[in-house]
Amino acid sequence: MLHLRRPRHPLARAGVAVLAVAMIGVASLFALALAGVVAIVLLGRSLLLRGQRPVQAAQATPTPSDPRVIEGEYVVLKRHSERRLPSA
Fold it and tell me: Euclidean distance between the first and final Cα of the chain, in Å?
């Protein structure tokens, strides 16, 4: 196993610290550049694939068979008697 000792000279310690910060900065810039390239590739791919998809016409709202029926979305709620109250 490689074991490195910290330098005893104060300028050498400062140099090692500056080198470590520089290496972290280079790694961060590399990661940002890689993320940018991936984003550009994915954006270009989605733009290319969008051009190949057929455009769907807007669908007209279907007329209900019974004019008294109102179409819409709904949520089924439990009955009040089925709800459990938290025990005290």
Answer: 61
